[in-house]
Each structure stands twice: as C-alpha cells, then as structure tokens.
Amino acid sequence: MTLHDLGRLGGALLLAGVAAGAFAQGAEPWPQRQVRIVVPYVAGAMGDVVTRRLAEGVRAELGQPVVVDNRPGAGGNIGTRAVEQAPADGYTVLVAATNNFTINQFLYKDLGFDPLRRFEPVTVLVDVPSVLFVPASVPAQSFRDFVGFARANPGKVNYGSPGSGTTPHLSAEAINKAHALGMTHVPYKGASQVVTALLGGEVQFYLAGAGVGAAHVKAGKLRALAVAARTRLEALPEVPTFAEAGLGGINASNWWGVAVPAGTPKPVVERLHAALCKALADPPTRAAMVQMGNVPVCNTPAEMQRQLAEEAAAWQRTLPGLAVKVD
Questions:
Q1: Where a domain ends, among 218, 245, 272?
Q2: Phi, psi (deg, nearest 5) at residue 205
Q3: Residue 123 sits in a domain of what CATH number?
Q4: What is the distance between the alpha carbons of residues 166 and 170, in angstroms, rounded to a whole number?
Q5: For the chain, what percent of residues have pLDDT higher than 90?
Q6: CA–CA distance from 226 to each of 22, 231, 259 (Å)?
Q7: Is residue 280 located within the same domain as residue 180?
Q8: Pick from 16, 148, 226, 293: CA 20 to 30 A from residue 251's CA?
Q9: Do 99 and 163 belong to one domain?
C-alpha cells in the first residue's frame, strides 16, 4: 500500500471518529439494522462484482447485515430512482455507474430527477478503464487493423453494449464516429450477455472493464486491442493504451460510485465512507480489484461532488454530437 493509500485510509478512519463523536452527542447510532445496497444492473456487472467483494468488509465494520439488491433496467434508471425515493436514513445505498450520476439526465426526457441534487455523494469506489475487446475470429491484431476491417465490411460490423445510454455505448459510439467505422449498435441486458454475443460472433467490438473479458483473452477466444488508461494495466500488461493504439483522447473510462438520498445526515455519510474505504484498503481486496483491471479510488464526498459536476458539464457538451437515442 502506498503512502497515498495510507493517507486516504487515515482520512477515512478520522471521518469515522468524527461520526462517532456526533452520535455520542445524542443521536441514535447508525446503523441499527440491515443496510441495503442497490446496484441498478444485473448480477455479474462490474459494479455488482465490486460491491459484493466489499460487502463483507463493510458488514464487519458496521456490525449489521449488508445485502446487495440488483435492480436493473432502463440504463440503471430503475434502481437509481428507487434509491432516490428511499428515506434519507442511510439504510438504502446506491452503487451505480458513471452514466447514472452524470449522463442520463441529459439523455432521458423523463428521468424525473436531477442526480446532482437528489443524491449525497459518498465516494467513487473504482475507476474501470475500458478495454477494446474483439473476437479472435476478427482479423485484427491492433486497432488500426480493426479500422481497416470495419471499413472493408460496411454494414456488417456490430458493437455491443450493456444497454442504450450506458457509458460503454456512448464511448463506443464516439470511437465509431471519430474513426468512421460504420458499426451498428446492439444493446443487451448486461455485460455477461454482451460477452456471450462477442464470443458467438453476434458483435465484433465491445468496450468493457478488463475483468469482463481477460479470462477469454488468455484462453485465446477474445483479443484485447487497447485500454483507456494513462498507463498499461497490470491485469493486461501487453495491451497498449488508447494513446499508444491511435485512439486519441476519447473518454472510455467507467467508474462506479456510492451515493445516498439527499438529506442523509452527514455523520451517516461519513461513517459509510469510512467503512467502504476500509474495506477497499484491505490488501487481498485491493489486489483483487487491481487484478480485475480496476483502479481503486475512494475519494472524499466533496471530491466526488466536484467530479460529478465537472463530468456532467462535459457530457452535456459532448452528447449532442453523438446523436444517440435511448428507449
């Protein structure tokens, strides 16, 4: 663990002490019962895997049961809305992807709420740099090869995503337009379904976290052409970065963050933050995250709030140029 990591963990533990002091002044200590973590995607998605890995450590820290509740649908909007409407008492927590916090409000006409106003940020858990996966049957050893393949097969190349409006969809469409690939978008219900389609040749291109397809790469069934990170991933060290592969500055990172309904007491937010960061700092857990191709983050609520505001503004400017449609 680096000094930076130790500093973040120390800060998290300090927040826990502050929260405990606040409770000691008369408020009922939280939690007194089960905490439910809603993941608005199907089981097996990266956020679900990360959440379930952390749940036991969070349970041990809080001293109460912690359950993971998958509520998929509508690009994550169904589960996100369920948490937005829940009581602001800390017993219903959201773990969701980039698009649920910074994109969907600009894509869906009837989203019904503003995530920047209706949630209290807790922390970004992990950044998940996307890897460009193609089936081994596609004759491309590099992204430049894939560009040639796609242009030589107009109307025959598809890219998959875990749903319309998700970050993998938007980032892939940005690549599609920037490099004139002429690919057709095929949405699925979740990451595992896209991988099945990729292996079966239904789609020829998929942006996803390394953990989704790394095993298939090692088995020779998929090929990884590039990773959207500043440096190469420990999980796939032979795969070039987007910059090295010629993809330019396209944003294809998808992080997973934690939030609670607006109005949740600050001491509750602080204790939840401390429990999550302590669980994430556990050496075996941290090593597992890195092996999956994730970059552990665990920033402060204020840092996450600034990140949300900045990214939401950036996506609001970018989306009109992509001209994507969602159901």
A1: 245
A2: -160, 135
A3: 3.40.190.150
A4: 6
A5: 75
A6: 48, 11, 31
A7: no
A8: 148
A9: no
Q: What span, in angstroms and rounded, lies between the C-alpha atoms of 214 and 155?
A: 28
Count of domains observed in the chain:
2
The Cα 267–Cα 1 span in angstroms is 27
Q: What is the mean pLDDT of residues 51-70?
A: 97
In a domain, 119, yes or no: yes
Same domain, 123 and 49: yes
Return d(Cα 211, Cα 50) in angstroms, integer: 11
Instruction: State phi, psi for 256 to the nearest 5 degrees.
Output: -120, 130
144 and 120 in a common domain: no
The string of pLDDT tens digits covering residues 272-303 is 999 999 999 999 999 999 988 899 999 999 99
Last residue of a domain, one of 190, 224, 245: 245
Indicate if 12 and 161 belong to the same structural domain.
no
Q: What is the rounded CA–CA span in Å between residue 155 and residue 160? A: 14
Entry pTM: 0.84
- Please report which confidence band the pLDDT of residue 251 belongs to, taking 50, 70 and 90 as the band edges: confident
Q: Does 105 share its domain with 160?
A: no
Side-chain-facing half-sphere of 201: CA atoms under 13 Å: 5
